[in-house]
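COMPLEX REQUEST
Ligand: zinc ion
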Amino acid sequence: MDPHKKPLTVKCPTCQQAVAWIPEQAFKPFCSERCKLIDLGEWVMEAKRIPGDSINLDDPLDEDSFFQ
Ligand SMILES: [Zn+2]
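STATUS: Structure written out below.
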């Protein structure tokens, strides 16, 4: 082993932690599966976001007053 040779590292896009660029690092460039899912989740949330969404779910159909 060459003690002067450092493994290439990248920064996790989610938490900025240094991640070794090695085959064992299955989730690179993320440091973990969690960070990978967070990153994916963020753009999914962004895509599904509806501007001005203010649906009130506190008042569903009231059967008692429906036939009055
Ligand atoms: Zn991370």
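REMARKS: The chain has a mean pLDDT of 81. The radius of gyration is 24 Å.
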